[in-house]
Each structure stands twice: as structure tokens, then as C-alpha cells.
Amino acid sequence: MKLVSLFTRMGLLALGMILVSVLSADSVWANSSDDYPTTSGLADSLLTEWALPLLILGILMSMAMIGAAYLVRDERMENLLWEFGTDEAEVVEVEDDDDNDEDAVEEEKADESEGEEVVEVIEEAEVTEEPEETDDSQEVEAVERQARMDRELEERRNRLESMDEKTRKKEEELIRVAEKAKTIDFSTLGFASASDADDLQRIKGIGPFIAEKLNVLGIYTFSQLANMTPEIEEEVNMAIEFFPGRIKRDEWANQARTLLGGEDE
Amino acid sequence: MIDPALVSALSALMFVIGLGGAFTRKNAIIVLMCIELMLNAANMQFAAAAVHHGDTTGWVYTLFAIAIAASEVAIGLAIFLAVYGQHETISLDDVDVLRN
Predict the structure, then answer these.
(1) CB B19 to CB A15 under 8 A?
(2) ipTM metric
């Protein structure tokens, strides 16, 4: 590799020297013309001789600009919804989330009381159903898990205030994702916590931020991803506000299965 | 007035620098900048030739090349942005397949 790069450099140096020596040779610059091109001459030739190419160039440039604008369009879920005008209520809600901190505070309060309720439910469950704990332990576990996730959400909300704008925006997105965790069927996926997390970024298509979003959603392991059914894939896709249908196209479930297989061997 | 031979030698240097950068760099934006450098070297050569021959055609070509370079950069940057959205990197060593 080093040899190749050395060779490239030598070649470039040689090319540079040859170019300079050829271009500065006296014979090239002999018999120069006496008249000097003027700006008005340039304008003349642009608008008469070169009028048509100029027009074509203008069309080309506007095509390039439209193309560039199309390429950089924002494909995130909320923008697509806005574009298609399908779910106006939801869009308004999303916009409120972004713009209105007051709303966030109110929501926070609402969630707080909700969280307390859940804790009470847990306590009740523990008190009243102790004898049959084996039967209901799963249910209790589920409620506890829910409570824990709510608490995490709360912590994230509280942290928001001490952040600068950029991290705040990111954090708000994560909170939005975490709120959608309830819509996903974890009984099929299986549960996991941060302690048994796999390195999700080994899957093609998952970057650092997507991995973080999956984590706040409650997805930590390859086996959870491998258990995804097409419907769940769709739900997760919606929840993490990723490009529509991307999880399916990138075959995260298949990739996760392959990675799992590789680890077993 | 500056000697056209000097301008043309400078443009040769610029071209070689741009070529070297385009060959050796991994960051897509730097590669784009190097391609731009090569285009501008060609523009300088055109301008020098126009002055030497006393003809405005060289200047017209320069103007056209500048406009085309501008649209090329717009498209190039847009593509890099799209690539970054997919791969979360624009290092040319990592982005070596077109399919996602």
C-alpha cells in the first residue's frame, strides 16, 4: 500500500514538472496577438454568438438545482405525513411537541401522576396477590417494567432543561421514540435490558443514533431483532422515525439471525 | 500585465495538486474540492489562452465551465448528504457499494 502511494506521488510530481515545462516553453507563447479581449467584446459574443448555449446552460443549472433539492429532501416520518396530509391531528401534535415547551411541561405533570398510579398498582399487586405469585409474577413483572420505563422517560425529560439546543433536540426525539414503546408487542420480541445489550451497530443500517433510539424503545439484543415479524418491523420503523420500510429492506431480522448464528458457533 | 506563461504554469501546478488530492484523500468533500481545483486550473488555462490570442471565446468557455462546476457541486453535495443519511459516513473507503 505504501509503495502504491509513493508511486502515485512520484507520478504526480513528474506530471507536474512535465506540464509546467511544456506550458512555459517559449514556443507556445510566441506570436501573441496584439489586440486584447475586452469586457464589452465578451458581452457581445455571449449575447449573439453564444446566446443559445447560454440558454441551455441556464436550463441545465436549474435542472441541477431542482435535482439537488430533491436529493436532500427530508424523508423523516413527520415530514412525510405533513406532505401527504394523511394524519393532520398527529402532525399538529408533533409540531406542538417541537415548538411548545409549555406543553411539554404539562405533559410531564400528567405523566408524573400516571407514574405514581403505576407504582400504586405495583404495590397493590404485591400486597393482594402474594399467595398466587407464581401465576401472576409475569404480569407484575410487566407492570414493573412499564414503571421502570416511565421513570427513565421522566429522567430524560428532567435532563432536557440543562441541555443546549442541539442535544435537546436529539433528546426530544428520543423521548418521542420512548413514548411509542407501548405500541410495540414485546411479548413476541422478548424482553431485554441494558445489561445484556448486543452491539446493534454491527447490523448494516444501524448507526449510533438509531442504536440509541432502539435502546430507548427497549430493544437491546440481536435475538429481539431476529424475532421481529413484518408487522412489528413496521411498528418499530414508525416508532424510531426511520425511512419508511427501511428495516424490512435492510433485512435487520435476517442480519440479526445471521449474527446470532455466528455467535453460537 | 501578467505574463500568460506564468498564469499557465500556475494552473498546471493547481491541476497537479487537485489530481493528487482526488487520488489520495478519503473524505468525499475534500475529493470534491480537489476536483473543483482541477476545474479551476483548466479555467485559468482558458483565460490565459484567451488573452494570448486576443479572442473572447476562451473567456466564454471559462464562464460556462464555472456554471457547470457550480451545478456539479450542488449535485455532488446533495449526493453526499443522501449517502450520509444512509451510511452515516462519507468516507469513500466505507461507501464502496451502491446498494443499501
Answers:
(1) yes
(2) 0.76
| CA B65 – CA B50 distance, rounded (Å) | 14
Q: Break chain A into its structural domains and give their ranges.
A: 89-180, 184-264
Cβ of A37 and B56 within 8 Å? yes
Question: How many domains does chain B divide into?
Answer: 1
CATH number of the domain that residue B8 is part of: 1.10.287.3510
| Residue from A2, A12, A13 whose CB has the most chain B CBs within 10 Å, to mutate | A12
- Tell me if A111 sits within 8 A of A153, measured CB to CB: yes
Surface-to-core class of residue A240, CB atoms within 10 Å of its CB (0-12 exposed, 13-18 middle, 19+ buried): buried
DSSP A123-153: HHHHHHTSTTHHHHHHHHHHHHHHHHHHHHH
| Residue B29 belongs to a domain | yes
Chain B residues close to A4, C-beta within 8 Å:
none
Residue B87's Cβ-count burial label (10 Å; 0-12, 13-18, 19+) is middle
Chain A residues near residue B60 by CB distance under 8 angstroms? 42, 45-46, 50
Domain holding B76, by residue range, is 4-87
Tens digits of residue pLDDT in A48-99:
999 999 999 999 999 998 988 888 777 666 666 766 666 555 544 444 444 4
- What is the enclosing helix (H) or strand (E) of A263? helix A252-264
A170-191: string of b/e by CB count within 10 Å (b at 16+)? ebbbbbbbbbbbeebebeebee
The answer to whether position B53 is within a domain reads: yes
Cα separation of A31 and A27, whole Å? Answer: 9
* Grid coordinates of A233: 418491523
